[in-house]
């Protein structure tokens, strides 16, 4: 497949300078033209200026509070059989529940309604650092669920 | 329809089964993308958070009954978030007496010596002044890095129509940002 400069300009005008964003079927022809025709390089250079400007736009990052709200939504969304049995306890405990229970503090932490959003965020981060285990299953099995 | 390979298939299944670790993994994987999509479509951080949260809530509701093979989960989630964005954009138009302009302001920018953060803000502002469909095309293809076929399908248009929206959008942005382009960016070569 070959590509002429007009098609190359059209695609650069639409998709920008990064060939990975171009239609897959036309990338190889574009590379060949790029190697053969120096005008194609100039076209990409112009497109690259706008790409770099677009990349300068700030990239929003989710806050811990937003993450917490969304995980709380999941707890209320009736996901899976064990969730229905254990509700918020299983969700709030996650992978760290068993370990924290050994220290005698987890149950209170999970049940208290006074737990602040910041502490919950820290708990989530802590849980994420542990090996993933479905404690809901363990709890359900242990209590005959 | 041909079966679509979906990198999220296993994760969605685990979420649907109520696996807390999968829920956290899904949040880590999808929330930044949904927030970015909404922020760039709406240009408002608080509204973007609301849209991202609502889209994820719908993901939780959908996961238990998700049928693999019809569409990618990521594409479906993009569609949900885009619909939520358009609902909000429509509401804005109904409330505002002056309708959002269809053409962006291509006048000269006042300050040529912009700092990087200011450059970013200018780009964001120029993006927000694009007609919504042009903005959507650029957000999907450039920022969300969807393939052209996937983006066109999501927008329910042909690939040719997508390319037309992209070209017009990029042309308008180039004109709007012409004054800051030479100073505001360092050209990246060799991609």
From TrEMBL, chain B:
Entry keyword annotation includes DNA-binding: yes
RNA polymerase sigma-70 region domain sequence ranges: 27-93
Residue span(s) of domain RNA polymerase sigma factor 70 region 4 type: 122-173
Keyword Transcription belongs to the record: yes
Keywords of this entry: DNA-binding, Sigma factor, Transcription, Transcription regulation
Gene3D superfamilies (alphabetical): 1.10.1740.10, Winged helix-like DNA-binding domain superfamily/Winged helix DNA-binding domain
CDD domains per UniProt: Sigma70_r4
Recorded superkingdom: Bacteria
Stretches that traverse the bilayer: none
Family, as annotated: Belongs to the sigma-70 factor family. ECF subfamily.
Protein name: RNA polymerase sigma factor
Organism: Brevundimonas guildfordensis
